[in-house]
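Hi again,

Forgot to attach this to my earlier email, sorry! This is the prediction with S-adenosylmethionine bound. I've pasted everything inline since the attachment limit keeps bouncing my files.
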Amino acid sequence: MPKEVSYVSEPKNKTQFTEKFNKFYTTVAQVYDIAVKILPFWKRWLKTTIPHIQGPRVLEVSFGTGYLLTQYAAQFETYGIDYNAKFVTMLQKKLAQKGVSTDIRQGDVESLPYEDEFFDSIVNTMAFTAYPDGVKAMSEMHRVLKTRGKLVIVDIDYPFNRNSLGMLITKAWIAGGDIVRDMAPLFRQFNFEYTDDEIGGFGSVHLYVAEKK
Ligand SMILES: C[S@@+](CC[C@H](N)C(=O)[O-])C[C@H]1O[C@@H](n2cnc3c(N)ncnc32)[C@H](O)[C@@H]1O
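Structure tokens for the complex follow:
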């Protein structure tokens, strides 16, 4: 039996939590952009989502520097939304330079500005642990996803075999303020059928591919 692990409780003051993270992203945006480009493992983790993306209409929630979105945008009718205004401007510029037509806007995962059942796939990487209200975030993504649509998430969890390096990495994310959750009850609550695979970080980075029933 794997060792028992403890997950992080959601903050009481959700606005304060989001604003604190947002201030941090604004400060580090340029460095983050360079880091994603030069860190081979980060790019590898993000790119594991690509084979699972089905079109024609794709939304990436919380694209950050936009590295992943720029890899597939030209193949689909692509939409992107992120809370951080600096990331939004950075990505709009990158896509304009590439001449790729997309709908990129600023907004909150908790109130997505799209119709019900609008997307064939939703992509979400290294961001769910930055949301203060997991049920609200999941509920909105579920709402805008078509039946049989794919929700593809990459994020931090504990390694299945509880190996010490993986455990250390997961605990480091928690120490940095991320809300590492047990995703299984959330997927079940919204009746998603899903897979959960370790893709890196000694088992601390997971790829979830969920289908809306
Ligand atoms: C750790 S970054 C991940 C960025 C990118 N997906 C990646 O994998 O490199 C977390 C992202 O979540 C975004 N974010 C945080 N809270 C959000 C919210 N409530 N709604 C939408 N995006 C949010 C941040 O602005 C940031 O871009």
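Residues 59 and 122 are 5 Å apart (CA to CA). The chain has a mean pLDDT of 97.

That should be everything now.

G.
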